[in-house]
């Protein structure tokens, strides 16, 4: 038996609550009938008194967030076992609508996105689940996890009861919710609560919206405890009747506790997002939160008899183009790593935060915690030398298109992907000019464009650089804009304005350019696979940019985790065996991309890099991460 060190009444109260966890978990397994059928339970997680109860027994939520879509499926079990070994009893996860429904009528709930398998795995490991199905989830995802095809509607008002939005939400929930209804606690499953939306109090622009979301869930069979989650400033505006309010915070301020208590005096308190660190943006520093500061906040929460969920317990990686962006005070795109300075690192390593939390949580568990799983082996493979080259211009014949338009068309409204538009990547716009002069973008380039005349680079358009000189020349010349969507803003009141590509007129000598040829370069797996049939050439001494570079990584034996480093490259995207690993950018802070072993083959692995402007034609692999120079979160 573990001797509990209880120093005051509040801590004693929460400790006694948490001691019942083992009994509740045993009850769950005793409720399983022969043949694998789950027995129904009458009472789930209840919040009608000052403390949570589960099946009538006092219960303290010791939660942690791990997103299935940011962790290779092969590592789901490893990460959740490490969570269990830390003393956590509840898994929380968001559900990314944008990934599950990339096009209208197309739904993905398999392999990496098999949410049912993920929740069942949590149950197998003895973890309860709080599900956060959105539809908006923020989570530092492009457009907060909303699908970009919603923006094809020029009148779209996201996160409101605008019919175009509610109809799309209903269609998605018709597919998602029936999959998770059987996994609820009262049906014998691990889901003990469901969160409505996320941080709606920060926008609160439609008083009918949150009741609509509640009804959308309940009418489809969600019957467990409902939650909302907001920062202290959004607590009042973000709530809805029938759901308890919970907090998001980094440090526990007495005023926040008082405000929550005043809004719901007879309900238990839960810090739904106790931030363990933060995300990073390109061109900034790597943000860290000292372990002692984080654990001090968690200790303070538990001493007050409150429940807690760590966001994130394990962040993982925002593979591909899923990262979002910040709008204020200026636009900044997020890096690929979602390490978050969390207790479990991006690659699944134990950190000082993990060990401090394990010591703290062990006092709230009746029995000894499980053994900590061993760490994955990592390897610094031999460098991959790029030996083939394909210019961007030679790759255009493998794109969907081209399309002709008298005026520029934003990405979302391009006639691609079964009329769902382009979600991510690059778009090339070309037109004909007969003179030089001054180009003016009027902030209509979203977010960044390389500009070419007759395929020779002349300059860069960013959000802040609104003018660019075009050199004089004779006859007709081709003016090209290679525009990159660096990530849609994931939070705030400007989500409706997150269309990408060229979103308005570009002027040459104050006259709008017309008659465009447009190519969609979304860099999807099907496009990368098609490039194997392209006219690759042996890498010349002076290759053209932008371009694709191909090399091979040889793995002897069982593949191990590694980190991809491109120290002398500029900006681009890395593809491993056809999978989009993510962006790299020399401005940092992130200097190495996490490459999980399960993405590699034993033997030959194809590496393709799309580079915009400069390269040294060699990719390095290291055993350790490099997230850049660190700065403490203020």
Features:
about 625 residues; alpha+beta; TIM Barrel; Jelly Rolls; 3 domains; 9-stranded antiparallel β-sheet; 8-stranded parallel barrel; 13 helices; 36 strands; about 20% helix; disordered N terminus
What can you see in these coordinates?
19% of the residues lie in helices and 28% in strands. It is α+β, with helices and mostly antiparallel strands and 634 residues long. The chain folds into three domains: 9-362, Alpha-Beta Barrel (TIM Barrel), CATH 3.20.20.80; 384-391 and 526-632, Galactose-binding domain-like (Jelly Rolls, Sandwich); 407-514, Sandwich (Jelly Rolls), CATH 2.60.120. The strands form eight sheets. Strands 15, 28, 29, 30, 31, 32, 33, 34 and 35 form a nine-stranded antiparallel β-sheet that branches. Helix 10 runs parallel beside helix 11 (352-362). Residues 1-37 have low confidence and may be disordered.
CATH architecture of the largest domain: Alpha-Beta Barrel
Helical proportion? 10-25%
Q: Give the biggest sheet.
A: 9 strands, antiparallel
Please give the radius of gyration in angstroms: 26 Å
